[in-house]
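In the design runs reported in the main text, the only information available to the sequence generator was the tokenized backbone. The following block is the verbatim input for one such run; it is reproduced so that readers can re-run the procedure and compare outputs position by position.
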């Protein structure tokens, strides 16, 4: 079986640290978190989104997420139409290995990940 080709852009300085801290605090304090998952809290903004047996209705993106979407669009070449926000309560929580269901994505788009707050390891 052939391994899939990954088109990855790693941009560690995309968001300035001061803005990242501001975004983190605003989201932490203002988002009404879905607490169904035990490892993390979640919320989705933008077009409706479905994964892992959970469904999120369409919800307007807050201004601060719209600003980030524009920054990301400048790098990836498309404007993200959804933002799934994960809030990990401590350093022991994590998202397990998984494969995003890209069948939901519009042609010419993809998945962008922005990590704010504490450090984390991504295995691709």
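Verbatim output:
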């Amino acid at each position: 079986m052939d391994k899939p080709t990954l088109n990855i852009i790693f941009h560690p300085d995309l968001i300035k640290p001061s803005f990242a801290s501001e975004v983190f605090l605003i989201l932490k304090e203002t988002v009404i978190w879905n607490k169904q998952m035990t490892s993390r809290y979640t919320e989705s903004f933008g077009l409706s989104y479905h994964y892992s047996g959970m469904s999120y209705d369409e919800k307007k993106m807050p201004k601060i997420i719209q600003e980030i979407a524009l920054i990301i669009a400048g790098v990836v070449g498309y404007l993200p139409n959804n933002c799934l926000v994960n809030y990990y309560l401590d350093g022991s929580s994590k998202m397990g290995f998984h494969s995003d269901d890209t069948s939901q994505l519009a042609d010419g788009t993809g998945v962008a990940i922005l990590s704010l707050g504490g450090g984390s390891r991504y295995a691709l």
